[in-house]
């Protein structure tokens, strides 16, 4: 196969990165999706307006870009043969029951944040897929993570790879693929904390959470999980009492110590498919799941310091550690966002709701996006606005606060599943075939 390259078209003068923290994992370093306000961050854009650069990305991948300094990292899987292309809209059925055809190339790319030019590319693995996948997903569904010195790339049913920032492979750990629910494949992204890379792999055969030494790749610990159908990214919750790893699940929401010991759990009567990822705000950890076919689509706000089983028989209101609970306030794919005192939920079928993040009380009920759209990417926020990217590539700009108002709609005209990333004055949006750098600072 001819060597694949990331082709770049620079549309305008390159952006100078003024400031901003590194974007080190799915939804940013703190996992909230809320960015620091910056004069370069735009409210309006299109395929040409406020575009610093755009790069063509070969293959298919739905991981968010991550950023260290002026390096942007993303992954993709390139197939030698044509396979089923994902399409927008709600999918309620079986996965692609057979592995994709032909030889595939599991790729890692490093792009310059200033220009969009390719710095390096590495082929982590070459071969034929051995497991099927969800028809809207990819064999590169996970967002990579970094500790600022090393890049940790997870291809969920294949392996965990560690590179230095110049692309040298430092170590790898292969993952034995297992049968997943409905043959949807893996999607949970890794996180890194205090020298450990944490990976969750829930499946129908042998689910687990494990930690690998960030320098050597040695497995430090591995804990079995009584779960089969969850894809949420684990959350390292650094609260006032301790640091713990929170992982939702259909059977139980659980917290683990940094040594892999279970700290607390409760049966949240979660949806049959658990996808939204936990995050923290106002001193609480927010946990949710909302498969569209389930009557119970809960959101929980959990206080720190819990131990053992914290709620029995669905008596969530009686728990000392569940600050509030809403039985029907969660989305299916997207992770919620807390901005200020409000919690916003973007529903896959084109609605948004707002609740008080401190009490759970409803601020406004379901409001429909217009024009209509479906959603997989999680929302993000800055400058008093909530941004919601539809699968059709249209971003709705919503006024933050107690009243629903669409301020702008920004089209990119291509399928969008990946959650965007923000660093300094740059917004990075990944579409099916491209990576856009959007900014006012040019």
TrEMBL record:
<dbReference type="InterPro" id="IPR002372">
    <property type="entry name" value="PQQ_rpt_dom"/>
</dbReference>
<dbReference type="InterPro" id="IPR015943">
    <property type="entry name" value="WD40/YVTN_repeat-like_dom_sf"/>
</dbReference>
<feature type="domain" description="Pyrrolo-quinoline quinone repeat">
    <location>
        <begin position="108"/>
        <end position="226"/>
    </location>
</feature>
<dbReference type="InterPro" id="IPR011047">
    <property type="entry name" value="Quinoprotein_ADH-like_sf"/>
</dbReference>
<keyword id="KW-0732">Signal</keyword>
<feature type="signal peptide">
    <location>
        <begin position="1"/>
        <end position="19"/>
    </location>
</feature>
<dbReference type="Pfam" id="PF13360">
    <property type="entry name" value="PQQ_2"/>
</dbReference>
<protein>
    <submittedName>
        <fullName>Outer membrane protein assembly factor BamB</fullName>
    </submittedName>
</protein>
